[in-house]
Amino acid sequence: MTTSRPDLDPELLALLATLPQAPALSPETLPMIRPYAVVPPETALAGSTADRREVTITSADGTSIALTVLTPSGAPSGAAAPCIYWVHGGGMVMGDRYSQIDIPLEWLVRFGAVVVSVDYRLAPEASGTTLVDDCYAGLVWTAEHAAELGVDPTRLVVAGTSAGGGLAAGTALLARDRSGPALAAQVLICPMLDHRNTSVSSHQYDGPAVWSRDANAFGWESVLGGLGDREVPAYVSPALAGDLSGLPPTYVDAGSAEVFRDEDVAYATRIWEAGGRAELHVWAGGFHGFDALFPQARVSASARQARSDWLERVLAPGGLDAGEE
After folding, report:
1. Are 223 and 127 within 8 A, CB to CB?
2. What are 13-18's contacts with CB under 8 Å, separation 24+?
3. Residue 76: exposed, middle, or buried by beta-carbon count in 10 A (0-12, 13-18, 19+)?
4. Max alpha carbon distance in the chain (Å)?
5. Are 205 and 5 in contact (CB under 8 A)?
6. Over the chain, what is the mean pLDDT?
7. Which domains are assigned to the chain?
8. Sheet of 185-189: strands edge to edge?
9. Cα(257)–Cα(207) distance, integer angstroms
């Protein structure tokens, strides 16, 4: 199998060279790495015009989990705003509900959206379906409290990046199979979808990378706890889902120079095969999470703009018209 890699975008390559080398993920290094994956709320929301509310809800197993609700400052009471239900990234093993929050905050500003971000439990302390069950519980709470939140229940979007993109996909599958909540769209940003870790792009990034095949294996082993392939639920590893029909309009993007490229392309392709709506972007020269790490780069700005323009179409009255993609 080929080990040559697509070239990185030159601007991203130069920016990447400014970062310190992170240690490889392992049970020993994870406690040291985790603190660098989170930022205090005050820092994450610095410069934001959002009002913040913290909520505690109960997940399927009775455990309390936290949600953060961000509302545009000065939003009129009772307004029916779109809602972005945000699922953070971090390889299933790190991060919190403020991780990458700048992405949905752009939609709060542009669309007047309410953002709800879920603090799902992390592996390896939590495993199996626990993470996606937490995400689904938060989505159900959001839909049930739509009127209180000033949210239009017909414009509820689940979105996430990396591990959060995979969990968002699993949450959308749960919502479909449990007949609710209804989703207007799902936005899957470089999503972590396939625990098998066997694609060409996975092998291309077996070695040093922002997120490598080895790091990916560690993340999946942490959340699956030694389950055999036949025991892995599709809600955890959505690439296993046998049926991708009945899903909401879906946006998938990835970089050409990342481990998840091929599984993300395959997921969008299978949605099309099932007769669904999907828009797919593969950004030439983008490494994993490039637009979250370096939003100032030109290709990052293009990726964010394309994503937001698509979401604007979805959230407009009538959503995507028949025949559009």
Report:
1. yes
2. 13/285, 15/293, 15/294, 15/297, 16/210, 16/287, 16/294
3. exposed
4. 58
5. yes
6. 94
7. 10-315 (3.40.50.1820)
8. 50-58, 64-72, 114-118, 81-87, 151-161, 185-189, 250-255, 278-283
9. 13
pLDDT at 230: 79
**Is the pLDDT at 319 greater than 80, yes or no?**
no
Tell me the two tokens of residue 241: 């889902």
For residues 261-283, average pLDDT: 98
Chain length of the chain: 325
User: Looking at 103-107, 136-140, 173-177, 207-211, which range is the least confident one?
Assistant: 207-211
CA-derived radius of gyration, the chain: 18
- Residue 55 β-bridge partners: 67
* CA separation for the pair 10, 68 (Å, rounded): 37
Handedness of CA 20, 217, 219, 311 (dihedral sign): positive
48: how many CB neighbours lie within 10 A of its CB? 17
Question: Between β-strands 151-161 and 114-118, what pairing exists: parallel, antiparallel or unpaired?
Answer: unpaired
| Percent of the chain's residues with pLDDT above 90 | 86
Closest to 155 (Cα-Cα) out of 117, 119, 187, 133: 187
pLDDT bucket at 280, cuts 50 / 70 / 90:
very high
What is the DSSP annotation of 38-63? ---HHHHTTT--EEEEEEEEE-TTS-
pLDDT band at 22 (very low <50, low <70, confident <90, very high): confident
Partners of 283 in the β-ladder = 255
> 3-state secondary structure string, 144-193?
HCHHHHCEEEEEEEEEEECHHHHHHHHHHHHHHHCCCCCCCEEEEECCCC
User: Quick check: 320 pLDDT over 80?
Assistant: no
Task: Report, as an integer, the average pLDDT of 55-73.
Answer: 96
**Residues 6+ positions from 244 with CB-CB distance below 8 Å:** 267, 270, 271, 273, 274, 276
